[in-house]
Every structure is written in C-alpha cells, then in structure tokens.
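In keeping with the milestone schedule agreed at the kick-off meeting, the structural modelling team has produced records for the first pair of proteins. Each record is given below as a sequence line and a structure-token line. The laboratory manager (R.T.) confirmed that both were archived under the project's standard naming scheme.
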Amino acid sequence: MLGKTAVEVRADGVAVVTINNPPLNLLSVDGIFYSVDLSSYFVLSCSVHDYSPTDAWNYQLVILSLKESIEGALIRDDVKAIVITGSRGKFSAGFNVTAFGGTQGKMTKMELGFMSIQIVTDTLEAARKPFVAAIEGPAFGGGLEIALACHARISTSSAQLGLTELQYGILPGLGGTQRLPRLVGLSKALEMILMSKRVDGKEARILSLVDTIAPADKFLEVACQWALDIVERRRPWVISLYRTDKLESLAEARAILKSARLEVQGQNPNVVHPLVCIDVIEQGIVSSPRKALRKEAEALQELRQSSTCRSLVHVFFAQRQIFKIPVISKMNLLPRKIVKVAVVGGGLMSSEIATMLVLSNYQVILKETNKKHLIDAISIVEENLQNRVKNGRATQEGLEKSLSLLEGVLDYGKFKDVDLVIEAESESLSLKQEIFSNLEKCCPLHCIFTSNISTFSVKLVGERTKSQHRIAGIHFFCLSPVMPLMEIVHTESTSPQVIVDLIDFGRKMRKTPIMVSDWKGYSVTSMLLTYLHVAVLLAERGVDVYRIDQALKSFGMQVGPFRMIDMVGLQIFVVISKKFVESLPDRSYKPHLIPILQQDNREGERSGKGFYNYDNCGKVSPDPELSEYMKTARDASNVTIDSKLTKLSDSEMVEMILFPALNEACRMISDGVVIRSSDLDVASVLGMGFPAYRGGIIYWSDSFGSKYICSRLENWSKAYGGFFQPCNYIMERSAKNISLTSETRQAKSQL
C-alpha cells in the first residue's frame, strides 16, 4: 500500500475507501499543501524550496494509492460495493497548487491520459461494482472530479463542491469538463466552471449534482446503503460520462457555448484558458466524451506551463505569504475578539468607514465634533445603505439591522467599552495628537488606537500617549468592496498581539491585510495615487480620458483610473492626495482638473456626475461635456495639448501610467517598508485592480527587465519632470541588469 488511503470492509459487503492525507486530503504528497480552493495554507513537512513540482510521481501519489485501494476492493469476493470518502470531515480539496505552473516537459499520450482515463474513467467509473461518493466538507477540483465519476453522490448540507481550476489558469483535468455538464446541464456547468463557483450541499442537491442530502452523523451510513441499493437494483447505476438527459439539444448547446465565448472575450480578451475550456466541453458534446477526455488532458498539459498559470499561482502563494509575519507567526498568538469599534471624525471618510463596519456586523460608535456634522455623517451612512437596497445588494430588513448597529455621539462617554478606535480626522497633526491623548483617558486598557490617514507617521501621532504598544495605522483602499485591501502600519513599538488582532479584524471585514512599516510616511496608497496622478497628467495634456480608461481596461485593470476616481469620489481622492502632493512634490502631480469638476458638484458616482455620467439604475456612460472642463483646466494652468502624448499607442500609454507606480513600489522595497516584494504584487491586485493573471506589478516588471523600465522613466523624466525620475533601486538594478523581483532587502522592522 502507498499509504494515502485506507480500506475498511464492512459486514454488509461495502468497502469504505477513505482518502487519508490530512489536513485537506489533497491529491498529492507531504510538503507545503496549498489547496487549490481554500484560502488557508498548511505547512506539513518541508519548505516550498524542498518540494519539486517537476516530479509527476509526487503529484499522483495519493491518486495512485486510491487506484490501488479501489483495485484491491474490486477483486475481493466479499465486497459488493465501494464508498469513497475523506478523513476528518473533508472529502478532498483537490490537487495542491504546487502541481500547477511548472516547467514539466511534454508527456507521452499514455502519461497524458493516465489519471483521467486509466484511473478515474476505466478503473473507477467502468468498474463492475458500484461506487458512491460520501461527501463532507470540501470537494474541490480533482476531489470533486473523482466524486463525479462515482455512480452516486451523497453529501451533507454544508459540504462545498466546485471546480475552481480556472482561477489558476488551467482547466479541470480529471474529466470535470465532461461529467459536470451531463449532471447539472450545460448552462449551469459553464457558470460553475468559468466562474470557479462553489455550491453547498443544498444547492448541489437542487442541481442534481448530488443524489441526496444526509446529516453529518449519518451520511456515511446513507452512502453505504445507497451503494447496496444499486447492487440490488433499487437505485439506478448511473455512468455520468454518458448521460445525455441533462444536455440541451445540439443547436441549443452550440448557442449557449457561443454566448459563453463572447462573454469571456468581452470580459477578458487577454486570457485563453476559459476559451480552451469551452472548446473541450464542446468537443464532448458534438463528438465523443471519451475523445474529449484526451483533449482535456492535452489542454491541461499546455495550460499548466503557460505564463497565465505561472502568474496566477504566484499571486496565490503571495496572498498566503502575506499572513506570514516574521517572528510573530512563530508566537502562536490568538486574536482577541473585537466587538465594538469607534470611528472619530473625518466627515465623508468616517461615514464610509462606518458603513463598512456595520456591513461587517460590528457595533459602531461614530463621533463627530458638532451636531450638524454628526447628522450629516449618519445621513451618508443611511444613504450608502439605501443605495445597496436600490441596487439589490441588500434588503430593507438588512438595512435596518445595519443601522441598529450604529450610534452617533459628540463626546467620549460611550468609549469605555470599545475594542478598537479608528481615527479619521482632518490632516492636522496637533488635532490627531489631542484625539489620541483623549482616547488613552477614555478607552479601556485593551483598546487598540489606529489612524486612518496616511500622511503622518503613526509614531508621531501617538507620541503624547503612554500607549505606543497599542497604536497602529489602518488604511482602507478606495473604501470599496471592489478593492479588498487593508493596510496595517506598525511602528517598532506596536505589540505583536495588536498586529494579530488587526489582521483578524481585516479578514473578518473581507479585506486582505498587508503589513507596512511606519517609515517616512510611506504607504501602499502612494503606489495607487501615483498611478491615478499620471493618468490625470496625460488627460490634462490632451489624451482622451475614455481612451486612457479603455487602454488600462484592455490591459486587464479591473477599472480604469478615471472610473476608479469616480468610484472613490472626488472629495475623498482630494483628501487622500492633498498631503501626498504637499509632502512629496517631486514624486506627485497636482491635478488642475479635479477642483474645476468639483465646482460644478461633479463628485463622481455618488453625485451622478464625475468623469462619467451615472443614471438612477447605476448605468455608466461617457460625458460629452467633459471636454469643456478639460479646456477650462488647461487654460487655468497654462498647460497645452502635447501631440506626442496624444499619439501614444495603447501599450505605450499603459507603460507610461504604470511604470511610475512600479517606481513608487520599488522605493518601498528599497526602504524596507514592506516585508517582501510579493506583498506589493498582492497590493497592486487587490488595491489597484491590477490583473492577477499578470502576477502583480512587481512580477509583471520581469516581462520588460530593469534596463528597459529605467530607460523609459528617464526619458519621460527629461520631458515631463522629476515625477518620472527612476528611484535608486531601479537605477542600481538597471546598471547590473538585475531583476526587480529579486529579494535583497529586509523590512525596516521584522516585528
């Protein structure tokens, strides 16, 4: 036995084969196990550098053990039927991500079809004894594909099922492209596969993905009885690969597939793996599902070696690395519970933060300096919540529940039991210091004090207190769920417990927290602001706003820079960027256009007008009047249209807008503001909307090389000023022809 599965033959003749590769029963070997489908990681017995993804035997070890167990059960005379399940309440979370993005050589035809055809199809599905999958917990990727090949599936209501491979640049490779459409129908299968969508046991039953739901304490017994019922012909013996009753007619199927292709191409023309997946699905419908299994295996082999797959796998690991904080990770500290959060001042900013908090079910105390400001702040929260109801993202009942969590105050009397304070006051250092002094007097000893505005050193803000150990910074990106990043700024005095608490707080708000050092007022926000400022610079010099947005969207950015400013709101954009411009004038650009738009109450999406027009249904459209505002801004600032900029190609425009943001990111690496350069890849994806399939802004830089990036920045600097001047980090690496991704610096504080 290979030892990754266990077999127990019951008295009733059912052999229970248990996948036993804890903690997630992945279809691979001991090492660093990163589930394809779960947001957590587990280090078992070796480091990532010890694990070689070139060893195909390693990938197959668990599934080979499963094959051996199945074959052993099939030849036993005392076995009537077989049930496959997973140990410790988890069926199988599929293959670990180290199996993807490799540089393996070409496989032979026999090797390509080994797992999908020889094991899953010919050994399991074609067996002369029935197989039933007993599913509890995750059944993802290859794990679900094994279950799909069984002749029936029993699950608990809380089980999670999905084929999520496309988010890693590949496609299901154990027959999922063929069996899922035959079980749930083509339209639903396309939705689940192309969107990497997971469903729970209840929905799976409605879709006929599973045959019945059973309680967690009885589902294995139900599965065993179901298997015996198949033997006795009381239940149907269903071979999923050849079912046709759920498939649409050929004409309907072709129309559905054509529509899916158009939608994929419209959403993201830069990636091919969704289209390859659709082609493989179509092959099985119009030709033969068995031939399509071969095509599926060939496609998987190609996609695993693609740049898209490597980039997405890089982002996957980078997101998991972000939670590994040197020293602190080894302390095994448990986060303390945060129940009540106070937000102090700041007008619109504080209202937006309060909205996010109540939507995350936190009790919120919102403090303002006077009654009018407080009424206005609460009105903005109510408006934000009401907009969610209008857009169908919340119910009226949900709105009322969220509002019940909010309480407005004018003093610190209600702060005696708060667990966390987020200060969002105006950019006045003395006022901030006064607030922190008051907090120390009015809040409990365990309460954490944080500042949301990033232009002052956190240490400086709290220097009048004796509570430096519980002071940190929290910066929310764009105050939008579209950008799920939260920056945590720590000083050398911030306690490890506070950091652990804030990381947990961020995750509960569905944000990914990134750690940065309190150093020279830097924050990851500066990378985003630089990106937006360059876009405005180009627009003020004659480049069409909508062409800029379209070029960045075509590159893969989630939204263009001007659409992003509208989403954030011009008022918040001005607040965030004002101090950045004042403190770092040589590295920023002061927009002339924004104040002119604000004079006409064009505040972005909130007001219905900004760079775009927004109707009551949320529809976005270009504004033909914008050109007049541009002309006014140029006249007021003596800026003229630059014919060189207006003639830029889309790719040149993308470089000119993104390279300065990359330059800012490299400054943070050089000064040790972040723990590792890959943290900035995560920050660019989650904070700027940078395309994950390009690996993040630092990883992407390798496609150009440091010499090219440096020369481009130097040329722009000569033409348009020091804003484009390459930092020393880039210049040093350019001189030595060293990649910008190489790690040579350590963070200022290793915590």
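The second protein of the pair:
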Amino acid sequence: MVSQGSSPSLLEALSSDFLACKICLEQLRVPKTLPCLHTYCQDCLAQLAEGSHLRCPECRETVPVPPTGVAAFKTNFFVNGLLDLVKARAGGDLRAGKPACALCPLMGGASAGGPATARCLDCADDLCQACADGHRCTRQTHSHRVVDLVGYRAGWYDEEARERQAAQCPQHPGESLRFLCQPCSQLLCRECRLDPHLDHPCLPLAEAVRARRPGLEGLLAGVDSNLAELEATRLAEEEALACLREQAAKVGTQVEEAAEGVLRALLAQKQEVLGQLRAHVEAAEEAARERLGELESRAQVAREAAAFARRVLSLGREAEILSLEGAIAQRLQQLQRCPWTPEPAPCLLPQLELHPGLLDKNRQLLRLSFQEQQPQKDSGKDGARSQGGAATPPQSRDGAQTPKQDSAQPPQEDGAQTLKAERAEMPQEDGAQTPKEGRAQTPQEDGGAQSPRGGRSNKKRKFKGRLKSVSREPSPAPGPNLEGSGLLPRPIFFCSFPTRMPGDKRSPRITGLCPFGSREILVADEQNRALKRFSLNGDYKGAVPVPEGCSPCSVATLQDAVAFSAGARLYLIRPNGEVQWRRALSLCQASHAVAAMPSGDRVAVSVSGHVEVYNMEGSLATRFIPGGKASRGLRALVFLTASPQGNFVGSDWQQSSLVVCDGLGQVIGEYRGPGLHGCQPGSVSVDKKGYIFLTLREVNKVVILDPKGSLLGDFLTAYHGLEKPRVTTMVDGRYLVVSLSNGTIHVFRVRPPDS
C-alpha cells in the first residue's frame, strides 16, 4: 500500500505485481482499465463479462460493458509503456545465448554481424559493437543515447529509457503522439492533426498536462482527506470496542469478587449474569466486526484508486496521463461523493448492579444494566463523560421495582464510568451481623461465630448448587489459601500466531506442546510430521529433525534432548535430530502422553493405565499405577504433565476426571464434578505455584484448579478467543500457551493473584 502523499518509484512499479493481471496471474496482455481504475487483460475481461455488465474481481463493483465489447474499455497506455520497458530488459531473440543485433540483418544478412553489446534508448534497438559505433557517427542518430547492453538489462538505465519512451499512434505506425485535441479530448500525432482535427485547437502534451494536473491533484487530495476520516472513524470504533472489553472485564471481575462472599443462592444467579455479559459482548463484537469490515472495504477501494492515480501522475508520460485523466477524475469524484463516515452504532457498556434482598432463589441479586457510551468530541484521553439521567431502577421477576438502599445517589464524577453497587445486610443463619465493610458474610456450617471483620470463615462450606462457569467441590485435602480475597490467577493476552509454514503440505494438527530453551516452544505437528520451534512472539526458529516416517504426538524437553511419542514408540533425540534411544510401548493405546520431570533428567510416559519413568540413558527408573493396583485397567491418562512440586497431573478419560498423584502413584486429589460440563478432561498444564490449568475443548474453556485438584473457576473462555482449544503448555511458569484446532497458537501471561 502506498502511503498518503508518497510517490511510487519506477523500480517499485517494475518489480511489484502491478504489471500482473489479478485474474490470470500472468503479465498483462492488452491491458484494459475499468472505470474503477483496476486493470486486467482484455481476454480475461471477455471471460468475465456477463451480457451487458461484469463485476470487478477486486472491488466487486458492477461495470457496464460497452456495446462493442470489452475492447472498447480504455487501453492503459501507462501499463503498456511499463510493459515495453520490461520486455526490452528481458531480451528478445537469442543467438548462441546472446541477443542478436537488430541492424545487421538489414545490411548483410543474419550472419553479417556479431552479437549485440549495446542498446540505443531512442531507437529501442539492440546493436552489435560495429553498428553501435556507426550509430554514433551519422547525422540523424549521433544524438541518440547508446548504452551498454549488460547495464541496460541490469536496470541501470530504466529511468533514462522511460524518459525517452514515446507513446505510438495506433492509427499511424511510426508516429508518436504529440498533441491533445481540446474539443475531442483525443491524443494526436502529426498525421492525425492534419486530417479531421485541422481546425481544432490543440495543445502540446506537456502544456496540456500542466493545465490539467492541478485538477487531478485537487481530487486526489480530497480522496486523501476522506481516507483520513475513514481512519479516524476506524480508530474510534476500535477504541469503543476496547473500552467495551475493558469495562466488561472489570464487570466480570466485580461479578467474581461479589459472588465469592455471598450465599449459595447467589451462585445460580451469578451464572445467569455472566451469561448475559458474555452474550452481550459477543453480540457487540459481532456488530463491531461487521462495521469494521465495511470501513476497511471502503478504505481499500479508495486507497487503491488513490494509489493508481498517484502512480499515473508520478510515473506516467504526458500522453498516458491525459489518456487516463477522464477515467481517474470520474472515479475520484465518485469516491468523494460516497458517504465516508457512517454513524457509529451506539455501544452499550455493561454495568453491574448489586441489589439487597433475602436469600430467595427467585430474587435477582446480581443484574446487568447497559448505558450508551457518548462519542468523544475532543482528543482528550481521559474519556470524561457524564452519564446524564439516573438509570431506571431494576425490577424483580414479578415486575415490581426493587427498592434501593439509598434513595438518592451522589452525582457521578465527570469522566468515570458508573459501576452501581448496592449491597444489603444478608441475614445469617446464626444471627451474626454483616461485617461493617459491606461484604456479605458466608454462613457458618456449625452456626458458630463469624470470621474476623471483612474476612471469611476458616471453615470450608460445601456448595450444593450447580454452576457452569464456577463450581466448588470439596477436595480430599484442604484447598489453597486465597487470603479471603477471592482473587485467582488471571490471563493477560500476550500474542497470537499461526503455525502453518510454507513447506507444510497439510493444515497443522498440533498434538503436543512444550517449552524449548529460553522463551521458546516446541510444537508437535502430527499432520506434517514435524517438530517446529517458535519464540513466544511467534517467530519461526526452524525445526528439530525427526526420524523418517515418524509422526510426533506428545513431546517434552529434557536437559539437552527432546522426548516424544510416535505410534507405539518413545524416542529421545538431540536437537540436531540424532536418535539417542527408542523404546517400544503398548500397542493397545492409540497415543501416549509424555511429560518431563522437574529435574529435567527423566521423562514420564503413560502406558495402558500406568506411568513409566525413564532416565536419560533409556533405562526404566520407576513404574506405578495411579491409585495402586486396585485401579489397574481403570485409568487412561490421555494427557499428562508434572508439577514443579514433583506431582503428576493427568486427564483420565476412563474415569472422566482429573487426577493428581505423587511420585509413588498415591492419589492426592481428583476432580470429576459439574465444572467439567460433562466433557472429557483435556490437556493439562501447571504453573510455578502449582495451579492446574485444564482444557475443556467441547465448551471452549480452560478452567483453573488448585494444586490438590479443587476447581476454582474459569480461566479462559470463548470471550478470550478460544475456539476448540487442543493442547496447552506452561513456559517459564508464567506464560500459558494454548493451541487451537485450526493450528493457531494463543499466548497468555498468567497474572499472579497477589499482583
């Protein structure tokens, strides 16, 4: 894309795809220009024509076909001139591998002279050394510019050859176009002027271009101004979308924090509110994507027209500019008349309202409200906006208005997005009062004394409610200490990149991920039989060679080696592809999960219900059955990882659960509750603090569990761009890498709960 105000060079026009037809992808032949300023081969346009009209393949604009056919479209003399220059540089006939002299056959036959060594830029002929010397010694051609043929073919004289290039009259071969007939707007040679245009006022081409250039430049400046308006509108749309996402994230956080301190009846209502929030954001994003697509489409059409006009004005000869002047002016005027800045759709920002009420399953304790974001009229970044009138009081399910705790609310600060939070003292089962800090106190199981002020009880409470987004299930051992704040690790989007490389014959199918060195990941692409290296920023670093015929499935990195499973074998190879050892695995299992131990000198692999651990020499170090021999045949660990604490975490498809066991195979935690949404547990990763990240592919989620396997809540959802997540890994203990089924990788930084 040519930026506004810049002029393309001749080298760019000759080396880019500007001279290629976008239909046949070959060099343009008989180039014809449509009214939308897109140029194609005449034969290609003839194939596209549908009766009396055709659609431009690039901008999809419908163009009427002249009655005489596509040949009546304007011939692009500008492109023709560039094509002549390209063809001359490419060379013509060859003699013993060298171009032939153009004058020798005229004097003494084809064998009368040697190979061409020079070129006359005025005559556009290749000359041998003898003819070149004679060319400089005649009265008619002594002023011609004769240059070295090798330098000409190398492009050293492109600018000079372009200046000496003249458009030829199609009516009188050998005559150059020299004049413009003003009444007819037609280019003329000397012969044309003596015939039907003898009495018409005519101007030399240079003078005619000087007279008409300011008009075209004014139209071009108008289109540039419209492009700037489109860009400003696009930025405003993206700002509104970013504001919506930021506000939605804040509201989601408020919903999470509020739900942590209320009773079990709030859990079901929390699910409903979060569902409303996600539905609103998804609908708003879909509408925003449509508007952004329309803006980009309009900008692309205008940008291409402006780039073409700028190329013609910068690189075109006088005759070429004048031949296209009418079409360019008509197109630029048409673009200026278009509505450039459509009115942005109103953006409804979600607002959280907490209302007082008894513990009644029919009472809405959490409700979303939406307020329209006012468009910003100045460039200030503070985003100061007043909300105007008061929001309508929310209604209960029976239609009555819910009373508020305070009848009058203080005016909102200018510039603040209002977050309404109305809290009431919730009745306690034991009669204890709500803490003064305004947070609802969790009832005690035994009816004892309340927890310290602003805190929560040390005793665990078993929640019997069922909630899709967040579930609480009792753990076999005490859960992590969240210090009563309700805060969990949160994702911060880092980057996203595709994994398909130019040499891939098929779409990637990522079956394994693992860290590889410093801030790198290793991707097992089973479909293309490759182990690909990427940086966390998405830069491709090459591939680790694998044995021929191997399709890597699961992969893990050790100290200076790579372990992976392929079929019924476990391989250990060096980064250069040298195989250290291979071990046969059970044939009754379709795939084998591989995990590196925290020490970096052992690798674990799941085999037919048990886990085998091998050292760097390939010897079996240990073997155990998760849960002991009593559970033999009842475990199927499809995904496996090791935590920094030395525990194993696996997805058991036989029991449809996530299982945590120590190095001896003793189960210390297992989760199979409703938080799995009836899905088979997917890929697992563990951060440096022991938090477990479990993938649920069917519902497009990654949920988080504590180190003992108790579900804590959602970590990633479709709101974060997840679409059929497949495999995850943790890099440096703080970057969660997620691969999708389409081969795309998302990277999220895990924000610790204390930060």
